[in-house]
Design brief:
Strand content: 5-15%
Order of helices and strands: HHHEEH
Shape: flat
Largest sheet: 2 strands, antiparallel
Distance between the termini: 56 Å
Strand order of the largest sheet: 1-2
Number of strands: 2
Helix content: 55-70%
Radius of gyration: 31 Å
Structural class: mainly alpha
Length: about 140
């Protein structure tokens, strides 16, 4: 099905159809049967890099917009009568950081246990070789 679509797009491009102008720049190397000079591996890597940067910029703008919408001051009531005031986005950021730190601290005992187990295992070069049975006939 894809081959038929590519073939139709190539024919439409050769006939000068206006709808295939957009597709022609992407499908022309496919129509030729080989990669053209415009679609090399480095070009695709750059395209992926720019796409990643665009996604990061979009996430940043969404978070920035969220911060601008939630910039009003809120009260934080803690134990022992402590009351703090800060913008809502700061409080949300602190809650996120505290949650991240709590999760990382919960992993510390597991990481130390795994390191201890890894240190106890003999290394690949320190293992004894498998003894060969001398009773086997040599073929």
């Amino acid at each position: 099905m894809l081959q038929r679509f590519v073939a139709e797009a190539c024919k439409a491009d050769e006939n000068g159809a206006s709808g295939a102008v957009f597709l022609s720049c992407f499908l022309k190397p496919v129509c030729k049967g080989r990669m053209g000079a415009t679609l090399t591996r480095s070009t695709m890597k750059n395209l992926i890099r720019y796409l990643g940067l665009a996604v990061k910029l979009l996430v940043f703008l969404v978070v920035l917009g969220f911060a601008m919408k939630n910039s009003h001051t809120v009260d934080f009531y803690s134990y022992l009568g402590y009351v703090g005031q800060a913008p809502l986005i700061v409080m949300l950021g602190l809650a996120f950081l505290l949650g991240t730190l709590t999760g990382m601290l919960a992993l510390v005992p597991t990481l130390f246990r795994l390191r201890r187990e890894l240190a106890r295992k003999p290394q690949e070069s320190e293992r004894d070789t498998i003894p060969m049975d001398t009773n086997m006939p040599i073929v």
